[in-house]
Write a structure and sequence with these properties.
Strand order of the largest sheet: 1-2
Distance between the termini: 117 Å
Helix content: over 70%
Shape: globular
Number of helices: 11
Number of strands: 2
Amino acid sequence: MKEKIMTVTFTMDEDPHIFGNWTNSSAGSKFNNLSTLLNEDDYQKSNVQSSITVEEYDLISVLCLTILLSFIILATIAGNVFVLIAILRERNLQTLSNYLVFSLAIADLMVACLVMPIGAQYEVMNQEWILGSVMCEIWTSGDVLCCTASILHLVAIAVDRYCAVTNINYVQYRSTRRVGLMIAAVWCVSFIVSFAPILGWKDQEFLLRVQKDKKCLVSQDIGYQIFATCATFYVPLIIILILYWRIYQVVRKRIRHRPGHAIRPAALLPLVCAENVPSMTALNGSAKMISGTKLRQKSRDNLESKRERKAAKTLAIITGVFVMCWLPFFIMALLMAICPDLIPDSRLFSLFLWLGYANSTLNPLIYTVFSPDFKKAFSKLFCGKTYPQRTAPSSRQGCLSTVDTVF
């Protein structure tokens, strides 16, 4: 045993590099392993930190999106509810023209209460539909119904304005029944367009798209899309543009061809529907009394011109807002049906869709800005301010303007 030990000792002494090489190799291997473990640990920590950063970013994005969409929904509800309350409470707002405004506010309120909340949930879930195919059909049909009704009410209002401006006798035969038929026609067309997919007019990939891809879109059948987009937007847009252009022409013609100025307007005191009330006019430097009936027509023409200009301006702004809100979405909707391979960016699709929804938010604001009657009603509603009651003009009174403005 001793000899063997000595041999081993001798061998190690004889070749000391063997031990040294073994020691260096083992130490290097352990060092490399330690470095690898440290690198992997740093990599895992980096991944964890990156994951936390992404999750924080996603959480902030979802929170901001939720706040924005909630604000749009609440603003739409509040604005249209105030319009409805104003019309119901104020007698001077309860005109035949405002029946159309009332029905429009109901359609916009339905958009805010029935369509937007589910749409907001869909957006917050990163456009992943979790409510099933039946609910998808119901929601998309309700979306088309409410939005179509809102758009077609703008057409009805444009038709009403056109008739009031171009036909001086229109206010005499415009009745509750006629306005009611216009409103009924708007809702009937909206129901037909919206419920066609439920009755079977939808593309074959509808169920697969909902169940597998978790995407809820209205029927992408090309025939239905052409029918729906034309009935809902393109035809109404053409009608509105034509009617507005005709209104503009009539208003411009009336302004440029006003009656001759036998008496200068600057010399007249303003008259508003005075029946046999004396008015003062400057004649040869002295004040003389003349009958109000001689000047009533002049005042009526001036008042009519102001109302016509205001009606045309208001209708133009409403039309412009309508086009700005809905045109991008309907262009994209038609392109998606015609070119199935065209897949728009989901964020762009959401932007265009909610821009269209925002039209229901902006309509009440337009009434507030451009209608003195609505301004007074809202001031009374919010601030308790009261104004002298103004009797709505009747078509049988001599002071009626052919354009009784809606807004």
